[in-house]
Structures are given as structure tokens and as C-alpha cells.
């Protein structure tokens, strides 16, 4: 396994920079997830590293070697695409064995067999080894596609939304499996998704992209608790973070640091029936099972609250609403966060 | 406004039974969600209510009136398909008023009703705008406006948010529910997305393989699932299922799982097979040194204020939802403590939940989640 280093990489299509002066380092054995909406430059970044796109500027290094000008085959990279691309006339077994049988690899037959069965067991497609690729469900095909990347041990793995076509249950299972496999192999993985749950649960670090630029990179906890900007704050958390004018909640205006124009507060950090809180009426109650989402109308400003389902709340109820002490995030007019140090300690203490 | 009664409704396509002998009632003013995987019969049921499909047997009553054999256009029901279809050459007002103009209503009435619908959806400031330049949210609202402007007896919606990305779907779910709170029209909504169902429904009807599995409010379906299918389909991550050791007599209040014995709500009926299945939600397990069942941590997933811990236990792999303040790492040996008031036992022969103090609502704390 190897580290990946991008320095000042730019790729333009016509007049738009899909990737704009991107500098990013992925450590040896690290799982980094690039998160961003459609068009943020996630997939182009992967394709640049794989050599499927040429960089207009900047350098790309894998394991310390400059690969910027090397063809894809010379980069020792495994790529899992969003759309599974299997050989339809091959069996699952042959699809998995294919990368090992490539000329020049000279892996012996017994070793290939062992590896194929290992990977098939890992991805729970063992019973299907004899099936043709065309006889598989979508979920099975995608597992074979992931398996084909896993059979060899390249320098790095690049994955482009590999789980997005699977159903929820399988995605849950594969998330934890994939992370486990990565840890056990000590694999370097750069993974692209627009699914915040995948990013939060699998990443060692999340890189948030906006319009081809890396706007923040850090551990999931960093990104969630200390986002550098409103843009980043909105990428994680469901329901989304509340972004309120300072006047919306009692006390916010007096606590706000100089320059703050917006207070950001996660729905789980809004307290209901708070003494001295701003009065509002509950206009929405969504009982999601483990948690309940409330929508409170504070004089025309909607605020979301996330509560344990055991707490009761009634539609139409009038209640005081306040921010958990120390949980506020402050943003200036440009949408950048104004750092304070209270937040971290408050969260540690707030959830027992 | 209307109530809809479904009596012994049945529909086959060749050998395939799409809907099997369904009987239920959709109450006046209710937001009723039909939920299930593809092929479960939910859309076929909806299409029969709409009159787009004729049943093989059974009756459909709209406000007590038998409409089973009446044409869709004579049922006074508004059917909302994928919400995105708008007429691109018309402006917002023309799009919304289109169904009224088809009916040749007086111009003044058309204008008033169109504007009322637009106000309800908070798009009255967009009425003269072409639909081409609208945001996707506003386009969705216009399409919805075209459905509600008819003031039909009931609204039927077939996966209307299916094509949207997650962030926007969340927003539209909330808006749809808010709209329902304002106009209170009987709504039947079909989806395969359990989160949509939980977020919007007054009651959820869970279907599988043509059969109704359970009809109940979201919390009820989540906490007291009637079948193992319901328990696994609702909730993310899914409920954990653990095989028990030994059979269970009626009155049993303990169950053997792996190497440990844990307390559970008293059963009202026996499980004759040896392999009863214990169902427990990830948030009803605590990591605790005193836990009766032991296991090894297979995965830890960060989820904001929570973490999801996957444990390989003596009874199989399971998931625990824990506060993120609990320090736990891969490979750790942990004890598992089960919330004894909220466990459900399933009979492996029928996959039905076994009646118990908890399911009957008599266990202490069993009513705690209902506000």
C-alpha cells in the first residue's frame, strides 16, 4: 500500500475548472472520503489519480513516485466504478479471477483459487461463483465489481460511489464490511460519495469539495462539530443544521462573538421546553422510531429539533426553545465560522 | 373529504397474486402510507382505488358508496404521479389551473381556486412565471398545486418523491405533511422508503408479497412490529434478530441467548419450536461489563452524537446504537445489556410476533414512547 499526494492539480473542461488547484494527501493505509454534491469535482479527482484524465496543471504522486504523466496501467491502481462493469459472458468466478490472470502477473492457479474464494466469502457471493454475471441481481453484480478490485493488492484503491446502487440493508452491511477489509489489508482508499452517512461512518478523514476546491478536510467528528463554513456544516447531519439569524433565539445576540451574523445549531442541540427560551409552536412532528424530529415555528423562522422518541411532544404545543449551552456555531456574513472554544467541551458534557 | 373502505380486495396477474384478500379502512382526513418493497402489491392496491386497475374480487367503498366498478374519472379522486411532469409551454398559473379549465368552470372560479392553491403552497408570487426557470422545489410545488386545485375527495400519490436526491426529499416530505395539516384531505401515499413513511404517515400499512402485514401509527409499527418482516423493513439499521436456545412456554419471562439468560416481557403464548427468535432494536442494547451476552467489536461507525457498534456475539452479529461518549474500539470484548421492557419474540414457524406484556401494552414503560 502507498500514500497519494496531489499538489496544485487542476483540470478544466471548456471554461469550467472541474478540479481547481487541488492539494490533498492520503496517508498510507488511510481511508479518505471525498464528499460533495454533484459537480463538486469528486469523480474527476479520482479519474485524474487513476490516469483516466490528464491534469492541466499540478502533480500526482503514488507511493512517492510522480505518476502525473504515466498511463493508467502503469499506476498500480484498482478502480471501482459506480456502474458495475462485469464481463457478462463470464461466470462470477472468472470475473473475480480475471485481474489475477492478466498476462505478466503469473499468479499460480491454486493461489488464484484461494484468493477468489476468500474475496467471495468476504462479500457473501460464494454460492453464486458458478453463475454468469447476467444471472445476478444488481446488488450481487456490484459486490462482484467490488470483489474484482479486492482480489489484487494494488498500491491504492479508488472507489466511486460503489454502494449507491444497492438497497439500504445491503449498504449497511457492506459499509462495515468494506471498512473492516480496508483496516485488515491496511489499504489506502480514496472513496467518493454524496452520501453523508457513508462518509461519516467509513472515513478516517473526510474531504469536503465545493466547485473543484477542497474546502475542509478532517476527521468525521471535526467536520461535524467544527465545520469551517456554512457550506461544510450543511454537508453533514440529518435533519440539516439550523442556520438562524441571531435574533431568532433569546440570548443568541448577546452571546455572539463580534462579526457573527448567523448562528448554526444542530437539531439535537436545540432544547424543548427550555426555561427562558423563545416561545414557538410545534408545527411538525415526525416520529422516526428511535428519534423524533420536531419543526417549531419561531415567529416565521422554522427550527428543527431532534429528540429521543421517549420524549413527548404534541402538534400545536407552544413551548420555549433554546440552544444547548456551548453548542452554538457562529458564522460571519461570508459564511465562515468564527472559532470559539466552548463547543467541544459542551458536547462532551451534554451527552451522557 | 372521504373515507375509503377496502373489502376482501384481490388481484392476480396470471399465476402471480399481486394483492391477496386485503381488508382495511382509510379514515377521513388521514395521511395513510402504503409501504413495502417492489412487487408487494402497494401500487396495485392504489391503482385499484384510483380505478386504473380492476380487482379480481372484493369491493372498494368511497364514503360508503360502492365504486368498485366505476371508472376512475367518476370517482372524484386526484391521482398524483411523479410530481415533476409540468407543461413546459405554460406558466405557473396555467399549469395549476389546467384541470379546472378542462372542466369548463367559470373564469372567476378558476382564478380564485388557482390562487387559493398557490397560496396554500406558498408560490402565489410565482403565478405569472414560466415554469422553465423555476427551482426544482418550486416545480414540485406547482405540480402539487395542479393536484390540489381540484379539491377531490381523496389524493392518491405513487412514489411522488422517488426521483429526488436525499436532501431535497427530506424537505419535500416535511412540506407535504405541512400541506396535509393545512388542508386535511384524505391521502393515500405509496412508497418503498420507510423513512418517508415514518416521517409523514398518520398510519402505515406495511405490505409484503401481496399481503397486509400490519396497519398502525409509525411509532407502533416501529416498536411493536406484528411480523418479522415489518421489524426488518422498518428502522435503519434494522432490528437485530438473535436465535434463542430452547423453546418458550406461555408465561415465560426469560430467554436464553448465546451463553446468557436475559429477562424479557412476559409471553402470552408459547413458542413450540426450539429456535424462537429474539428481536431487539440497536438502541435497546447497551454496552456494559455486566451484560449477560458477550461479544467482540467488529466495527465502529461514527454518526454524529451517536455511534453504531457492530458486535460479533455468541448469538451472532448484531448492532448497537450507543452515545459517542462511550469509548469502544475494534477488537474490544464487550458485554451486552438488553432493555428488558422492549424485546419482541418471533415464532420461526409463522414469523409472527409472539403476544406478550409489551405487545399488549401492559408492560411497565411500554407506553412511554407515546406522547
Strand-helix topology:
The complex is a heterodimer of chains A (352) and B (371).
Chain A: E1 4-13, E2 16-26, E3 31-35, H1 42-50, E4 57-62, E5 65-66, E6 77-80, H2 92-101, H3 109-122, H4 138-150, E7 156-160, H5 168-185, E8 189-193, H6 196-202, E9 205-210, E10 213-218, H7 220-225, H8 230-235, E11 242-245, H9 252-255, E12 260-265, E13 270-272, E14 278-287, E15 291-298, E16 301-308, E17 318-323, E18 329-332, E19 337-338, H10 342-350
Parallel strand pairs in A: 3-8, 3-9, 6-7, 7-8
Antiparallel strand pairs in A: 1-2, 1-4, 4-5, 9-10, 11-12, 12-18, 13-17, 14-15, 14-17, 15-16, 18-19
Chain B: E1 4-13, E2 16-26, E3 31-35, H1 42-50, E4 57-62, E5 65-66, E6 77-80, H2 92-102, H3 107-120, H4 136-148, E7 154-158, H5 166-183, E8 186-191, H6 194-200, E9 203-208, E10 211-216, H7 218-223, H8 228-233, E11 240-243, E12 254-257, E13 260-263, E14 277-280, E15 285-287, E16 293-303, E17 306-313, E18 316-323, E19 333-338, E20 344-346
Parallel strand pairs in B: 3-8, 3-9, 6-7, 7-8
Antiparallel strand pairs in B: 1-2, 1-4, 4-5, 9-10, 11-14, 12-13, 14-20, 15-19, 16-17, 16-19, 17-18
Helix pairs in contact in B: 2-3, 2-4
Give an account of the 3D structure:
The complex is a heterodimer of chains A (352) and B (371). Chain A contains 10 helices and 19 strands. In chain A, helix 2 (92-101) packs across helix 3 and helix 2 packs parallel to helix 4. Residues 343-352 of chain A have low confidence and may be disordered. In chain A, 27% of the residues lie in helices and 32% in strands. Chain A has 352 residues and is α+β, with helices and mostly antiparallel strands. In chain B, 23% of the residues lie in helices and 31% in strands. Chain B has helices spanning 42-50, 92-102, 107-120, 136-148, 166-183, 194-200, 218-223, 228-233; strands at residues 4-13, 16-26, 31-35, 57-62, 65-66, 77-80, 154-158, 186-191, 203-208, 211-216, 240-243, 254-257, 260-263, 277-280, 285-287, 293-303, 306-313, 316-323, 333-338, 344-346. In chain B, the strands form 5 sheets. In chain B, strands 6-7-8-3-9-10 form a 6-stranded mixed sheet, sandwiched between helices. In chain B, strand 9 (203-208) and strand 10 (211-216) form a beta hairpin. Chain B starts with a strand and ends in a 25-residue tail after the last strand. The model of chain B is unreliable at 363-371 (pLDDT under 50). The chains are: A alpha+beta (352), B alpha+beta (371). The interface between A and B is large, with 45 and 45 residues.
Amino acid at each position: 500500500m502507498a500514500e497519494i499526494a496531489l499538489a496544485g492539480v487542476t483540470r478544466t473542461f471548456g471554461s469550467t475548472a472541474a478540479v481547481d488547484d487541488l492539494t490533498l494527501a492520503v496517508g498510507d493505509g488511510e481511508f479518505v472520503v471525498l464528499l460533495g454534491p454533484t459537480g463538486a469535482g469528486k469523480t474527476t479527482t479520482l479519474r485524474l489519480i487513476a490516469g483516466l484524465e490528464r491534469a492541466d496543471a499540478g502533480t500526482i504522486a503514488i507511493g512517492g513516485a510522480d505518476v502525473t504523466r504515466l498511463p493508467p496501467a502503469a499506476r498500480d491502481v484498482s478502480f471501482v466504478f459506480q456502474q458495475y462493469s462485469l464481463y457478462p459472458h463470464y461466470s462470477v468466478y472468472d470475473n473475480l479471477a480475471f485481474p489475477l490472470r492478466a498476462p505478466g502477473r503469473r499468479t499460480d492457479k491454486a493461489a488464484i483459487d484461494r484468493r477468489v474464494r476468500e474475496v467471495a466469502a468476504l462479500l457473501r457471493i460464494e454460492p453464486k461463483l458458478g453463475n454468469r454475471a447476467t444471472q445476478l441481481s444488481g446488488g450481487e453484480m456490484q459486490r462482484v465489481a467490488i470483489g474484482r478490485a479486492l482480489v489484487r493488492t494494488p498500491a491504492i484503491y479508488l472507489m466511486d460511489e460503489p454502494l449507491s446502487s444497492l438497497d439500504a440493508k445491503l449498504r449497511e452491511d457492506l459499509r462495515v464490511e468494506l471498512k473492516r477489509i480496508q483496516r485488515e489489508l491496511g489499504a489506502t482508499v480514496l472513496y467518493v460519495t454524496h452520501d453523508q452517512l457513508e462518509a461519516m461512518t467509513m472515513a478516517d478523514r473526510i474531504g469536503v469539495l465545493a466547485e473543484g476546491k477542497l474546502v475542509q478536510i478532517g476527521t468525521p467528528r471535526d467536520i461535524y462539530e467544527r465545520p469551517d463554513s456554512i457550506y461544510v456544516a450543511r454537508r453533514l447531519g440529518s435533519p440539516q443544521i439550523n442556520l438562524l439569524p441571531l435574533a431568532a433565539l433569546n440570548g443568541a445576540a448577546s452571546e455572539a462573538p463580534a462579526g457573527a451574523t448567523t448562528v448554526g445549531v444542530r437539531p439535537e442541540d436545540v432544547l424543548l421546553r427550555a426555561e427562558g427560551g423563545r416561545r414557538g409552536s410545534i408545527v411538525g412532528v415526525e416520529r422516526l422510531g428511535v428519534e423524533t424530529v420536531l419543526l417549531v415555528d419561531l415567529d416565521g423562522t422554522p427550527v428543527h429539533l431532534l429528540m429521543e422518541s421517549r420524549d413527548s411532544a404534541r402538534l400545536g404545543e407552544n413551548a420555549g426553545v433554546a440552544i444547548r449551552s456551548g453548542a452554538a456555531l457562529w458564522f460571519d456574513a461570508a459564511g465562515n465560522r468564527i472559532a470559539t472554544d466552548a463547543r467541544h467541551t459542551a458536547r462532551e458534557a451534554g451527552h451522557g | 373529504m372521504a373515507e375509503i373502505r377496502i373489502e376482501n380486495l384481490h388481484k392476480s396477474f396470471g399465476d402471480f397474486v399481486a394483492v391477496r384478500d386485503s381488508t382495511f379502512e382509510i379514515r377521513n382526513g388521514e395521511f395513510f402510507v402504503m409501504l413495502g418493497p417492489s412487487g408487494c402489491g402497494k401500487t396495485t392496491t392504489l391503482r385499484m382505488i384510483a380505478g386504473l386497475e380492476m380487482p379480481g374480487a372484493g369491493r372498494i367503498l368511497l364514503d360508503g358508496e360502492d365504486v368498485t366498478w366505476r371508472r376512475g374519472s367518476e370517482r372524484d379522486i386526484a391521482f398524483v404521479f411523479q410530481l415533476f411532469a409540468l407543461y413546459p409551454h405554460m406558466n405557473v398559473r396555467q399549469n395549476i389551473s389546467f384541470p379546472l379549465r378542462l372542466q369548463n368552470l367559470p373564469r372567476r372560479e378558476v382564478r380564485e381556486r388557482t390562487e387559493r392553491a398557490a397560496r396554500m403552497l406558498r408560490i402565489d408570487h410565482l403565478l405569472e412565471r414560466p415554469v422553465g426557470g423555476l427551482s426544482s422545489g418550486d416545480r414540485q410545488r406547482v405540480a402539487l398545486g395542479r393536484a390540489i386545485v381540484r379539491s377531490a375527495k381523496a389524493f392518491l400519490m405513487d412514489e411522488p418523491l422517488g426521483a429526488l436526491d436525499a436532501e431535497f426529499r427530506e424537505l419535500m416530505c416535511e412540506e407535504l405533511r405541512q400541506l396535509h395539516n393545512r388542508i386535511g384531505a384524505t391521502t393515500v401515499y405509496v412508497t418503498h422508503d420507510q423513512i418517508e413513511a415514518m416521517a409523514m404517515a398518520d398510519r402505515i400499512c406495511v405490505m409484503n408479497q401481496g399481503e397486509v402485514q400490519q396497519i398502525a401509527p409509525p411509532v407502533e409499527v416501529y416498536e411493536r412490529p406484528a411480523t418479522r418482516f415489518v421489524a426488518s423493513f422498518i428502522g435503519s439499521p434494522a432490528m437485530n434478530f438473535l436465535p434463542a436456545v430452547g423453546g418458550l412456554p406461555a408465561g415465560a419471562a426469560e430467554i436464553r441467548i448465546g451463553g446468557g439468560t436475559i429477562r424479557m416481557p412476559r409471553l402470552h403464548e408459547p413458542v413450540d419450536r426450539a429456535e424462537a427468535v429474539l428481536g431487539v432494536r440497536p438502541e435497546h442494547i447497551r454496552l456494559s461489563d455486566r451484560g449477560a451476552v458477550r461479544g467482540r467489536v467488529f466495527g465502529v461507525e461514527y454518526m454524529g452524537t451517536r455511534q453504531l457498534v457492530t458486535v460479533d456475539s455468541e448469538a451472532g452479529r448484531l448492532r448497537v446504537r450507543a452515545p459517542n461518549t462511550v469509548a469502544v474500539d475494534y477488537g474490544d470484548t464487550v458485554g451486552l445489556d438488553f432493555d428488558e421492557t422492549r424485546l419482541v419474540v418471533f415464532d420461526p414457524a409463522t414469523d409472527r410476533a409472539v403476544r406478550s406484556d409489551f405487545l399488549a401494552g401492559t408492560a411497565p414503560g411500554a407506553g412511554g414512547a407515546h406522547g
